[in-house]
Amino acid sequence: MRTINAICLIDDDPITIFSVKKLIEITQISETVHCFHNGHEALEFFKSLENESEPELILLDLNMPIVDGWEFMDAYSKLNLNTNIVIYVMTSSINPSDARKVEQYNQKFPFQVKHLIKPINKDKLLALAKESTTT
């Protein structure tokens, strides 16, 4: 399996950041992980990208302070960046309306938006990495 060039992890929970980053290291699906505590920090990172390669994958929490996951995707879409990116919306919600909204966002933007239920484990990471590197 080809590794992902870089992953962007956006979540306000330090435990989630620590555990997902550790799982990425263990699975070796990527050598580079950019971590942010809210959507604003991540947007600033994407705005400042010059000749650096953009991450191929974003793991995005929905409920965050300052800029939440929905607001992040709306703002990201206006940056005219990589449309080959896949955004996995990480949520602990099993509410069907969240899954429907993720599908609406997937139809709304040129990049892919997919739903990923927390907690994130090794098998889920390996599956999304395999899917991301085969598309």
UniProtKB/TrEMBL annotation:
Keywords: Phosphoprotein. Residues 6-133 form the Response regulatory domain. Gene3D superfamilies: 3.40.50.2300. It comes from the Bacteria. The modification 4-aspartylphosphate is found at residue 61. One of its GO terms (biological process) is phosphorelay signal transduction system. PROSITE patterns: RESPONSE_REGULATORY (PS50110). PANTHER family: RESPONSE REGULATOR RCP1 (PTHR44520:SF2), RESPONSE REGULATOR RCP1-RELATED (PTHR44520). This is Response regulator.
